[in-house]
Amino acid sequence: MDTLPNSPEARDIEYHMHPYTNARRHQEVGPMVLDRGEGVHVFDSAGNRYIEAMAGLWSVAVGFSEERLVEAAVQQMRKLPYSHSFAHRSHGPAIDLAEKLIQMAPVPMSKVFFTNSGSEANDTVMKLLWYRSNAMGQPQRKKIISRLRGYHGITIASGSLTGLPYNHKSFDLPLPGVLHVGCPHFWREGQEGESEEAFATRLAAELEETIQREGPDTIAAFIGEPVMGAGGVVVPPKGYWEKIQAVLKRHDIPLIADEVICGFGRTGRMFGSELYGIEPDIMVMSKQMTSSYLPMAAVMMNARIFEPIADETHRIGTFGHGFTASGHPVAAAVSMENIRIIEERGLVEQAARVGAHMQARLRALSDMTPVGEVRGVGMIAAVELVGDPVTKAPHGKPGTLGAALQAAMQDEGILVRALGDTVAVCPPLITTETQADEIVDAFHRAIPRVAAHMA
Ligand code: PLP
Fold it and tell me: Which residues, if any, are the signal sequence (predicted)?
């Protein structure tokens, strides 16, 4: 990249190590520097306008210039910019938000524990479960079952739960005691002649076998995203969650719903759990919880999880876990206002309505070369590209087509995200039908450009 000395681009290359970035390649291509946002749009430092069709990282529900969130933050900053929640200390914003989340939960829940990120929340979940097993006099019950292509974060514990190779490779992960069962992606993993329902039955049988092989009394929990996000937007096959839950119930194994992407309206329901009749013992939330204006996440648990843990804290004398910024008052105030906006403006209903329109229009891309599959639900979708429609093999090096489509969409003024050869779309919940059409129309122009370069 040609950069002027001292330009933001040059200084970024000089000083900034980026997450999820090839550090060597970054020295050549440099950053895309964004400057400001307004509604569903962001503007780069050269003034170019884009639809942020990934809502940042699946997260800016209410759009980029919501004054009410700014105002909520400013007011809280003035009143009590920081306080903690260690050792019986509390404050209004954390109390209000914990109460609100419990009221919103699709199943009866007991307590909320706050963290700063989804990864920390899933780390906390793992520690809560280990602590609980010890509290119950079952020290052998420590294993967690997750899924291939599931995404639960990147810290040592949550990165272990994640089922993606690049989150493990050279990090010496996953930790022992984390098991990964099959990914519920029917189009890729379904067998010749198998129905969706039969595929779901096969995955439930695999879970049952895994539990039997490991010993049911060694399993602390099963974790899954209602709809997988970062693993490539995988919508579960018909009957999947019902069958998985039947297996877990049979063995009395707690279920964790990772709602970090699905929560707060993304699927067209307030929580992804509602869409699939999931009855979790633990729910993990973040991202759209504050529209990511500030970092915050939460672990919500039912009494079955909380009570033995509470007893153990009493026995030990404290709960030796917590973050300086757990339940941060400014983030909590912003989250409350964000949830109020989602409710007042009917953004969950809007996501269902605009989402249905967007999904229907996106499906029409299925017939275009090199599209393999178009999938999604509500306001989360993906277009997967293939080199060979029969074998579903990639074109050349895996990820080549995905990167080309992401670049072609950017030329069209639409920011999407390539996850290998799958291009994800996850616009803010405020996206209108017209804006959804702009996104889909851009795909119609960009895909043939990618196809033209395949020969
Ligand atoms: N869980 C899910 C489902 C996610 O999508 C993510 C992030 O994308 C995480 C957990 C981790 O959250 P964070 O990046 O805030 O650590």
Answer: none
Q: Which residues contact residue 230 at a Cβ distance below 8 angstroms, ignoring those fewer than 6 apart?
A: 151, 164, 261, 419
Residue 453 CB neighbour total at 10 angstroms: 11
pLDDT per position as a tens digit, 293-350: 999 999 999 999 999 999 999 999 999 999 999 999 999 999 999 999 999 999 999 9
Q: Ligand 1 pocket test: pick from 60, 120, 261 the residue with the most ligand atoms within 8 Å of its Cβ.
A: 261
Separation between Cα atoms, residue 154 and residue 427, nearest integer Å: 24
Could you read off the pLDDT of 116-133 as tens digits, one per residue? 999 999 999 999 999 999
Angstrom distance (rounded) from CA 245 to CA 253: 9
Q: Record the pTM.
A: 0.98
**One-letter identity of residue 163:** G
Q: Which residues are near ligand 1 (CB < 6 Å)?
A: 57, 117-119, 122, 151-153, 225, 229-230, 258, 260-261, 286
Q: What distance in Å separates the CA atoms of residue 4 and residue 46, rounded to the nearest whole number?
A: 14
CB atoms within 10 A of CB 129: 25
Which whole-number Å values give the CA distances from 426 to 13, 29, 51, 270, 271, in the listed order? Answer: 28, 25, 11, 16, 15
Spatial separation of the C-alpha atoms in residues 225 and 236, rounded to whole Å: 10
Phi, psi dihedral angles at 147 (to 5 degrees): -130, 150
Atom of ligand 1 nearest to the CA of 120: 16
Distances (CA, A) of 263 to 29, 35, 237, 273, 288: 34, 28, 20, 8, 7
d(CA 308, CA 285): 22
Distance of CA 352 to the CA centre of its chain: 18
Helices and strands (H and E) in the chain: how many: 15, 15
The residue type at 137: G
Query: Would you say 333 and 411 are in contact if contact means Cβ atoms under 8 Å apart?
Result: no
Strands 143-147 and 178-181: parallel
